[in-house]
Amino acid sequence: MDIFLKYLGVFVVGGILCAIAQVLIDKTKLTSTRILVMYVVTGVFLTAIGVYDKIVDIGKCGATIPLMGFGYSLCKGVFSAVDQYGFRGIFTGGLADVATGIVMAVFFGLIASFISKPKSKNRSRNGG
Questions:
Q1: Closest among 69, 60, 51 to 9, alpha carbons compared
Q2: Taking 70 as the threshold, does the pLDDT of residue 126 lie above it?
Q3: Terminal-residue alpha carbon distance, the chain
């Protein structure tokens, strides 16, 4: 039963984060890029004030894998680097903790660009 509750926490927290993003996409004029940036910044902010740690305790990877989790990882990296290197850690810690994720995103994006056929989102005015 304990494992079921852990999975339930992951599903509920991840689902809530995704549902909020979907509502923002459907009900506002915000672009996907703005929502992405808002989620990352919100993750950093909630981590900085100590709230996101509690969400991670409940949601585990349901809270650390989405975009807010990226902000959480950035902020945690800065905190640990500041403890280790002082003021210099502000500039190095965030990227050191998320470097693997960034490299994997670039690598898989490159692979996807090789195997997919790009299509233009803009249609010509002549009906094409």
A1: 60
A2: no
A3: 57
According to DSSP, residue 30 is labeled -
Q: 122 is written with which tokens?
A: 């803009």
- CA gap 48, 93 in Å, rounded: 14
Contact criterion met (CB below 8 Å) for 10 and 38: no
For the question of whether the overall pTM of this predicted structure is more than 0.85, the answer is: no
Residues 47-106: tens digit of each pLDDT: 999 999 999 999 998 888 878 888 898 889 899 999 998 988 888 888 887 888 889 889
- Dist. CA 102–CA 95, nearest whole Å: 9
The full DSSP string for 82-118 is: HHHHGGGHHHHHHHHHHHHHHHHHHHHHHHHHHHS--
